[in-house]
Structures are given as structure tokens and as C-alpha cells.
Amino acid sequence: MLAPMQGVTKRDVRALFLAWVRPDVIFTEFMRVRSTASGSRLSAQDLREAQGAEQGVPLVAQLIGRESVALVEAAQEAQRGGAMHLNLNLGCPFARMSSGSGGQMLQRPEALREILPALRSAVGGTLSVKLRAGNEDPEQIFSLLPLLESAGIDFLVLHPRTVVQEYEGAADHRVTARVVRQTRLPVIANGDVRTAAEGLRILRETGAAGLMLGRGAISDPLLFERLRGKAPAEVAPQERAAMLRYYLGELVARYGATFCGDAQVLANLRGLLAHIDEAGWPQAFKRLRRAKSVRAFAAALEELV
Ligand SMILES: Cc1cc2nc3c(=O)[nH]c(=O)nc-3n(C[C@H](O)[C@H](O)[C@H](O)COP(=O)(O)O)c2cc1C
Predict the structure, then answer these.
(1) Which domains does the chain have, with CATH numbers?
(2) Which tens digit of pLDDT belongs to each residue from 188-222?
(3) Between 264 and which of 117, 160, 259, 273 could a Cys-Cys bridge form, CB atoms 3.0 to 4.6 Å apart?
(4) What is the pTM for the complete model shown?
(5) Is 191 left (phi over 0), alpha (psi -120 to 50) or beta?
(6) How far apart are the first and last CA of the chain?
(7) Burial classification of residue 257, based on how many CB atoms lie within 10 Å of its CB (0-12 exposed, 13-18 middle, 19 or more buried)
(8) 5 C-beta closer than 6 A to ligand 1
(9) Residue from 263, 265, 247, 240 nearest 255 by CA
């Protein structure tokens, strides 16, 4: 699965991944559920993303919210707009982004007793959650499993860091392995998969039903194909340079068609560049980041050899 990444896995990026490496499942960026009762629970922009599939691949619409009625209404709106699969974000660690929702929901897990069954009744397709191992305690997940099971969710995506940990340290997939053993729910392992060897090791050692790839896939989209054994597990620098030229060149074209003006195109490209491993081409990446026009960006791309 391609991970939801706010500001990164926008429609253009998803479309490129679908055409190129075709993840088995893709996610929208999180859709913020509005708490005001009047008007729509979701923004018009988010509603445009509400679909059951893109290019024939299931698209999961992810909601971030904290209150049962608002979440249910948002799920209903998303489904009226065309969404089929819904996911609840219980992992975002940034209070600024989530104010009581996302990872902060793990501070009041009792609220999930109401929210999850209510969402389950409202969602016709799959309902899943994406969560951290706990708020402060990486063992918290174990106390949540009975609740997740009785609520009838279809699968869970586990990023085994705590919320307070944000992105420090490493994802501890020993927790994933224990969760897999303790629940009958399919568990998707997420966090720190950067190479095919690492992903295959995590699958083997945890028994997880699948992997979700975030930063590793943004840095190397072919990671999907490497995991499937359809692209070499290791890549020579020249091949990586050619891959990056294709990848960023495609995004220049796709963003160029979506956004109006160089400033927006460049801002979106920079958002992606921040997650791409630049080892081997520090100068070219510096020029890419500093490019003042799309033309200068395209010229800097040619230096990636
Ligand atoms: C820039 C950025 C944006 C993210 N946005 C979301 C999001 O919208 N929803 C979500 O559930 N997780 C979000 N995440 C978390 C990722 O989906 C994923 O769980 C996390 O990065 C760990 O996986 P990785 O090591 O493969 O990147 C985001 C992560 C990053 C780095």
C-alpha cells in the first residue's frame, strides 16, 4: 500500500505511482473533518478526492477527526461523493495538524468505543484504522485490540512508534510481530521500509498481511517493484539517476498541468524532494531545491547523471 502523506501523495503523485509501479492499494492524504455542524463536514477539495478507486486500484479515503457524529457525517458525505473505503487516522503526532484527533485520540481511547461502531454502521466498504503503537506506551496497542476486533474493522495499519516519539528512533517491528500474533485482524506493517530486503524481512518476521510504504517509496517508487521481485533489489547509481530524472520529469509535467504558475509547481516539487535520498548528487539536489523557475528545475534535472 502507498501510505497517505499530507502534502505529498496528492492526486498527481498517486497517478504517477499507479501508471508506473501500481501499488495494490492507495490512500488519500488525510481529510480533516470539520467540527462545525453547519455546512459540509469535508472541504470541497477533499470531496473531489472521494472515489472508490483510481485507475482500478482501491483508493482508501482517510478521515481525521475526533467526534463520532462529525466522523459519521463525514464518512457519509465521502461515500455520497464516491468513496468506498474509509480509514480513521489515529496516528498523526502533530497537535498543530490534528488538535485532539489523529494520534491524540490515543489519549482518550474510550472515545473509540463509540466512534468505531458508529463508523462501522455507516461505512459500506472496508473500514480500517491507521495507528501508532500507543500514545506514550508502545504496549497500549494491546489494550486496543479487543475494541478494534469487536468494532468489526477490516484491517489495521500499524506504525510501531509512539505518538510522542513522532519520527524519532526506529519503528519497532517486534511490536508488529506481537500484534500479528495476538489479533485475528489483518495487520499492515508500516514504518521505515526503505529497501526490498528490509520489507521482505519485516513481512517474514512479523507475519504481517502486507506492507505500507511511505517515505521509502517517495524516495524510490520502484521499491514496490523491488519487493515484488520485478525490479532489481539493489540499484546502481547510474540507474538511480535515470530513475530520478524520469520521476521528477514526470512530476514537472503533471504538476505543470495541474497548477497555475511556476511558484506552485516548484513548491510541490520541493515538498517531494525533501523525502528523496540525494546521496550521490548533493550539488544537483541543491540546484533543484533552489531553482527559481520550472525551466531551471528541468535544467538541474539534466545534471543528475
Ligand atoms: C510528510 C508526511 C505526511 C504524512 N501524512 C500522513 C497522513 O496524511 N495520514 C497518515 O495517516 N499518515 C501520514 N504520515 C505518516 C505516514 O503515512 C507513515 O505512517 C509514516 O511516514 C511511517 O512510514 P514510512 O517510514 O514508510 O514513511 C505522513 C508522514 C509524512 C512524513
Answers:
(1) 11-227 (3.20.20.70), 237-301 (no CATH)
(2) 999 999 999 999 999 999 999 999 999 999 999 99
(3) 259
(4) 0.97
(5) left
(6) 30
(7) exposed
(8) yes
(9) 265
